[in-house]
Amino acid sequence: MLILLTLLKWGLPALIFVAPIAASAWFPPARRVLMFALPIPLFVIAAAGAWLWLNQESAVLRAVHERMTEMVAGAEIATLEAKLDAEEKISAARGQVAAEANRRLMAEINARVNLSRRLAAIQTENEILNDDLADLLSYPVPRDCAVDPDLLDRLRAK
Fold this sequence. Notes:
Helices cover 86% and strands 0% of the residues. It is an all-alpha fold.
């Protein structure tokens, strides 16, 4: 659009300046119409009109340039806002990932503590059972392979 306005800005005045000369060269009777008896030739009046038109056109060009600058600035602002929103989403996602990792770490710590307590309880129970087994093995077996009454009472108690 800027190129079109530039061509209009410089192409049309050139055409206005050259047209009377070309028309009078190709069509001699046009010279009487184009250069009638005024103190100022008609193409000078046309040139003044073109100059006034160019002043309006330059105002239009300035307005177009200002509008394009505003549009580019608006697009840059929108891009920066979108980038900021994306960075905020990434930051929030990182926060959620960190919170989930912290929750999993706490669950693992609790599981390890519970496991160590259960292991200690099982080891204590294992030691007690080993002591009982050692006690049972320390008793001599009767010759008739009958169960000792003391052992029988203990087994019934458990």
